[in-house]
Write a structure and sequence with these properties.
The chain is mainly β. It contains no helices and eleven strands. The strands form two sheets. Strands 2, 4, 5, 6, 9, 10 and 11 form a seven-stranded mixed beta sheet that branches. A four-stranded antiparallel beta sheet has the order 1-3-8-7, with no helix packed on it. It is elongated, with a radius of gyration of 14 Å.
């Protein structure tokens, strides 16, 4: 059993900052990519940032220069530092991770989501 637990969402004024954290736990052999998606009301879920192990970090154009993704591989944790927040960043943010379990094979796991609300 694998779980992704997120924390750090909340309400902030435009121009403010928040930091999201997500930790994977359970029956884990290897964690490859970790990242964040978001879904605003009435919109499709979209990529925010992803960080493959040993690969190139990818950011959505809308967050480049404002958001920073980082990982602590020893703790199976991914962070999302969000600065200069805008009302349009308001969404539920989901952590995702591609995990290989000891029994073999891999799949993408998702967290439960954390609400980020940016007031104008």
């Amino acid at each position: 059993q694998v779980q992704l637990v997120e924390s750090g969402g909340g309400l902030v004024q435009a121009g403010g900052s928040l930091r999201l954290s997500c930790t994977a736990s359970g029956s884990i052999f290897r964690v490859t990519a970790m990242g964040w998606y978001r879904q605003a009301p009435g919109k499709q879920r979209e990529l925010v940032a992803t960080m493959p192990s040993g690969g190139t970090t990818i950011y959505a154009d809308s967050v480049k220069g404002r958001f920073t993704i980082s990982r602590d591989n020893a703790k199976n944790t991914v962070l999302l530092q969000m600065d200069s927040l805008k009302p349009e960043d308001t969404a539920v943010y989901y952590c995702t991770s591609r995990i290989t379990t000891p029994v073999g094979g891999f799949r993408d796991y998702w967290g439960q989501g954390t609400q980020v609300t940016v007031s104008s």
